[in-house]
Amino acid sequence: MNATKLQEKNELKARISGYCSEKGLSKADLAVKAKVSEATLSAIENERWEKISDSMVKKLQSFLKSETAGNIYDTADFTAVVSLCDTARKYKLMIGLVGDTGTGKTTSLTAYSRRKNTYRLTFEKSMNPKQFFASLLSEMGIEPVGNINTMVNKAANGLNCKEEPLLVIDEAGKITHPVLLYLHDLREKTKGNCGIVLAGMPYFRDNLKKNAQRGKEGYSEFLRRINLWHTLGGLSASEARFVARSNGITEPEELRELSQKRRFGDLMNEIYLKRILNGQMEY
Ligand SMILES: Nc1ncnc2c1ncn2[C@@H]1O[C@H](COP(=O)(O)OP(=O)(O)O)[C@@H](O)[C@H]1O
Ligand SMILES: [Mg+2]
């Protein structure tokens, strides 16, 4: 094995152990969550690198990447997300967080979710209830087996025996009707112990309201159980300017233009393009 590969593997070992201690995870929890075997994790811990293939290294690197938010700016929106999550956890509330695309929901929630007993999952449009709960159980380090009722109960029991757990569901606007009904059950079974944050685009809230008004099964009950809503405001001009400056933009005209961006994602994209055009990017 060459020196670079060895360094890469040692870094992986350090990052795994840092991640586990930050989140309070055992090796068994991580194995279920990252979908690898415990033997693999032991081999890494004991530096038995001959047992670890390059594709396994890649798999674990990409797992860690999905759990890492990168360089975070402490914007008003980011601070609001942290405070909402803390509130949901402490008072066992169910909170709805809405924001336009690119306002930083996923980034902020990913950063927040490095905390202990915080379980974050992203709703995918193709998920049926069983797949949704399987994904939640894996996230919690519990083998995702059994029928849907077993899974809901396992998730509820798991959440009820943790200290101040928080469940974070991203892309909540995509949650389908059947999943919503099971999520309602989960909330009922865990509301004395667990907070929930549901994050989505503004249509998440609008559609819940619309379906509730139409009298569609379960929607008005679910909507009523959301204790609090928060809408992200986007970047202020001075925040956008600060981010642009710290990314190497110095031209006053460019700074003025960038300071008008309200969505973090748009700002980063513009900065990226300008840096390419100004020849500041390394290839
Ligand atoms: N607080 C933040 N600090 C650093 N970068 C951020 C922050 N919020 C958002 N971003 C950047 O903006 C981009 C879009 O944010 P994202 O979290 O994907 O938005 P959303 O989930 O609301 O659509 C991210 O890729 C990231 O580069
Ligand atoms: Mg997102």
Structure description:
The protein is an alpha/beta fold. It folds into three domains: 64 residues, lambda repressor-like DNA-binding domains (434 Repressor (Amino-terminal Domain)), CATH 1.10.260; 156 residues, P-loop containing nucleotide triphosphate hydrolases (Rossmann fold, 3-Layer(aba) Sandwich); 41 residues. Helix content is 57%, strand content 9%. It contains 14 helices and five strands. A five-stranded parallel sheet has the order 2-3-4-1-5, sandwiched between helices. Strand 3, helix 9 and strand 4 form a beta-alpha-beta unit. Helix 7 runs parallel beside helix 8 and helix 10 crosses helix 11. The longest helix has 21 residues. The radius of gyration is 21 Å and the shape is flat. The mean pLDDT is 96. The site of adenosine-5'-diphosphate has 16 residues, from helix 6 and helix 14.
Secondary structure blueprint with pairings:
Blueprint: H1 3-23, H2 27-34, H3 38-45, H4 54-66, H5 76-91, E1 94-98, H6 105-112, E2 118-122, H7 129-139, H8 148-160, E3 166-170, H9 177-190, E4 195-200, H10 202-213, H11 219-225, E5 228-231, H12 237-246, H13 252-258, H14 264-277
Parallel strand pairs: 1-4, 1-5, 2-3, 3-4
Helix pairs in contact: 1-4, 2-3, 5-6, 7-8, 8-9, 10-11
Bound molecules: adenosine-5'-diphosphate and magnesium ion.
Residues 72-73, 75, 78, 99, 101-108, 264-265, 268 line the site of adenosine-5'-diphosphate.
